[in-house]
Amino acid sequence: MSRNEERTAEVQLPRQVVSRVERRLPRTEFESVDEYVAYVLREVLARVEDESTDSYEAVDREQVQDRLRSLGYLDT
Questions:
Q1: CB 61 within 8 A of CB 74
Q2: Distance in angstroms (rounded) separating the CA atoms of residues 63 and 37
Q3: In the list 8, 35, 47, 62, which could disulfide-bond 30, CB 3.0-4.6 Å?
Q4: Rounded to whole angstroms, how far apart are CA atoms 16 and 1?
Q5: What is the DSSP letter of 71?
Q6: pLDDT averaged per 10 residues in sequence order, the chain, 76 residues
Q7: How many CB atoms lie within 10 A of CB 38?
Q8: pTM
């Protein structure tokens, strides 16, 4: 299923946000507010998901190592 064939859902946005997107459309490759907003949301979600996965793993790993050191299982 291509992006053009994706199932969709309706989302309500503040009119001010829609107006801002409408002003930007002529300077983009997008043909509609829907396309633009979907692209922006995908990009933001991808970044947030990548960041949260990386930072949680780093924090968890560091916490585990600290705990193992405190218990004497790892050398300092």
A1: no
A2: 38
A3: 35
A4: 32
A5: T
A6: 76 94 96 95 90 65 79 73
A7: 16
A8: 0.61
CA distance 20 to 33: 10
Radius of gyration of the CA atoms of the chain, in A: 22
- C-alpha to C-alpha distances, 72 to 40, 49, 58, 68, 76, nearest whole angstrom: 48, 34, 21, 6, 9
State pLDDT tens for residues 46-58: 988 887 665 556 6
How is residue 29 annotated by DSSP? S
**Alpha helix (H) residue ranges in the chain:** 15-24, 33-70
Sequence-distant (≥ 6) Cβ neighbours of residue 69 within 8 angstroms: 75, 76
User: Could you identify the residue written with the tokens 């979600």?
Assistant: 45
